Amino acid sequence: MRILMINGSPHPHGCTDTALHEMEQVFQTEGIETELLTLGTDAVRGCTACGGCKRVGRCVFDDVVNAALEKAETADGFVFGSPVHYAALSGTMTAFLDRFFYASGGFPDRPVACVVSCRRAGSTAALDQMLKYPMISNMPVVPSQYWPMVHGARPDDVQQDLEGLQTMRQLARNMVWMLRCIEAGKAAGIPRPGHERHVWTNFIR
Questions:
Q1: End-to-end CA distance of the chain
Q2: Do 109 and 36 meet the contact criterion of CB atoms below 8 Å apart?
Q3: Taking each helix axis from N to C terminus, what angle separates 162-187 and 15-29, rounded to the nearest 10 degrees?
Q4: H helix runs in 136-161, sequence order
Q5: Are 99 and 133 in contact (CB under 8 A)?
Q6: Digits of tens for pLDDT over the chain (205 positions)?
Q7: Are 142 and 113 in contact (CB under 8 A)?
């Protein structure tokens, strides 16, 4: 099994990375392969709603989004992590997720864990924003024992957030359990749920 982890922070070894690393240690102990992709400081442009991805199967802007989509094809599950900027996801992570999901339509039936890190507040608003992506894409959302967030202005601060780190470890264990349940279901012949073609309804008269 393989999990693709996306770090939406401009700091490759910052607070978000600290939280994701706590999860990664659990995955490795459980024999789950991981790959961490850090968005860093490279510019990630926003979606222009051009519709080109529907024709070519990938975003027309060839950057880290397409690289991630290629890696996602062989991933069994995903972890998305982002710092909190003004009670929302980082601008880079927002642009990335908009294009990642718009170009792919998501990856139905593959579980997703969402993680945010902040100094003090805005975490629940950012988490709510991030959850919108898998929940509109038929992707199971992995829970934990508390909202999946860590607190601190620096990685050393996050290391002192014992509750947050414990929440990360439980989130990772729940992800492993969900992946193994899905695998066991496939082995038992339980089919994936059917997905009806999306019906677009406009209520503007």
A1: 49
A2: no
A3: 40
A4: 155-160
A5: no
A6: 999 999 999 999 999 999 999 999 999 999 999 999 999 999 999 999 999 999 988 999 999 999 999 999 999 999 999 999 999 999 999 999 999 999 999 999 999 999 999 999 999 999 999 999 999 999 999 999 999 999 999 999 999 999 999 999 999 999 999 999 999 999 999 998 988 888 888 876 6
A7: yes
Q: Which residues of 43-82 are buried (b: 16+ CB within 10 A; e: fewer)?
A: ebeebeeeeebeeeebbebeebbbebbeebeebbbbbbbb
Hey, is 79 helix, strand or coil? strand
Give the Cβ contact number of residue 99 at 10 Å.
26
CB-based contact 142:112 (threshold 8 Å): yes
Question: pTM surpassing 0.90?
Answer: yes
